């Protein structure tokens, strides 16, 4: 094509010149011959110039066209991220793209010497035609070069001859593959892939461990789409499931929750867009067991179908639920007996109370207390105590299995709720059955003692405005009969007033201890033989802020129930010992100071130490202190009682058996226990004068006691006749209004001072 162009121009020029000369030659003899010659010469010249210009223009056009294509080529190369260069085989020109400029650290300049630069990229100093041909013919050749900064580069060049100029200059486009970059990418890829593997592994692990399944539900479509994992978890055979099919797998107690969820989703799915909610249900798992699953779901309206879709994860939360159950167990179960505790009883009771109101039925609320439990605990140890509680719980559970609800509500207090079937004696019968079971239980050292329990009960809802109140009323009934072991009492409204007074009293009593409202009165003990005062019994009084003097018979039982008794006894002991020592220091005749102990006091572990400390503090000889114990204490566990008493005896302290003849009197105690004095109860004294049997008993007691060097004293002696009979029966001492009422310390002091040796005792 290019050859054709040149030929055409040459032909046109030669033809123009020849034509011009031929015409000029034809007109050479004519006048106008010179003019024609000149005109044709001009024509020939113009033809040559036009031809030349045409050739020139054509050439320019071609160059322009080539430039455009080269630019486009370069433009393409410029924008690729791989290094690229456009150069020619004559090494007269080089155009580098940005990637190569950056990599080679060479700024593009117009004065670039392509001869020097291009060979560098191919790791050479010069490039021969053979090198260039080799570059073009064998593609993908790797070359190394070092950038001015010293950075080595390995590039795989792919060189293509893209164009050849008219002058035979061939333009070459070399596109490189920067191996450094590739290697960097590769290592990054490796790192990523490693990370990817790790996280994928972790993901898989999590999936395996937590059993995360996915579930999709489309609105208006009754179908669920479980993921493969969920299918495996639930043992589903298909990846599509109907709501009904899933419902069949729901635990019966959770079906209501499931149905309500389905209903909500059907009607209000839109409300759940962007809101994450959780539903927890028990579903039959692949192994056929019901397991807890937590479904965390969310609705979206961006699904391809255009429908609302609810999707979420399903996780097996059985373990967490079991933990929750354990926590609930701790919160609602009594650790010793395994029975529900007070918290649970309150929940159940409140629910039942509501039921009774709605359904017009009734329940009995029974509170049962193991008699003298604290003594068992103290004397036989906590293990025996716990054993007894468990035995009791067993007896309760039998009743529970008969349709009741049993709970342990505190230490030795249990509660039973049972349906009222119209028999008002039913609670007493139930407690009677428990009592019979309990009587057969042998607890450690108590095996030779029969165990009893007392109960109080109230009817729900008629006996109170709430379950709490009914339970409280049953407790009232229990405590109102607590003096008699094995008693079973029904709550009455009259009881209420007494109990209220008592509970008010208890609050006030605790303040009385702090406010020094307690005082000691002293009642003399007189020798029947000589009329001398041999001792004083300290009897407590409460000087109520109202001015009333409250008798111990009223507040001591309350104090015993609330453990306030320990504080009270501490006061009595300290005050009585102080007073006894004071009288001695005053030079009054030496007498024995008696103090009364409750069983709670006696079974305190460090009681002997406490007493000795008090004696030492005031400097009183232990033989001047007598402790009065009631025989009921000995009923607990005779061995423990005996050893505790022996301890006190060894400390030199005197021990009196108070109220002998009441309750479970047994003369054997005089043999088994180291008493120094036996106090015949007032009931003997009162009936003595016209009852020869009583007289005989007193006689026997005095005789047995004397044989054991135990002194005998009769309390409540009001008449000289009584005193006379007592003396004849062999009684040593007397105490009663006949000789002196309980009196204040000052009066007692006077009484001792005036102690007449020749006092007539009857
Ligand atoms: P107790 O130890 O048997 O005391 C004898 C009770 O009989 C005293 O009643 C006394 O005032 C009363 N009494 C004495 N002589 C006669 C009499 O001739 N006729 C009549 N009808 N009663 C007489 P008090 O002081 O009311 O004490 C009652 C009970 O309270 C005491 O019986 C004792 O068991 C207890 N008590 C008194 N003070 C204390 C104390 O400091 N601690 C403890 N734990 N109990 C105490
Ligand atoms: Mg007494
Ligand atoms: Mg007494």
Structure description:
There is one protein chain. With 762 residues, the protein is α+β, with helices and mostly antiparallel strands. It has five domains: 2-65; 80-179, Beta-Lactamase, CATH 3.30.450; 196-324, PAS domain (Beta-Lactamase); 333-491, Alpha-Beta Plaits (2-Layer Sandwich); 508-761, EAL domain (TIM Barrel). Strands 17-18-20-21-22-23-24-25 form an eight-stranded mixed barrel, surrounded by six helices. A six-stranded antiparallel sheet has the order 8-7-6-11-10-9, with helices on both faces. The chain has a five-stranded antiparallel sheet with strand order 2-1-5-4-3, sandwiched between helices. Strand 1 and strand 2 form a beta hairpin. Helix 12 (373-380) packs across helix 13 (382-401) and helix 13 (382-401) packs across helix 14 (426-439). The longest helix has 46 residues, at 33-78. The termini are far apart. Mean pLDDT is 82; it is low at 195-210. The chain binds ligand C2E and magnesium ion (2 copies). Ligand C2E binds at residues 523, 539-540, 551-553, 556, 572, 596-598, 628, 658-659, 682, 715-718, 735-737, 742.
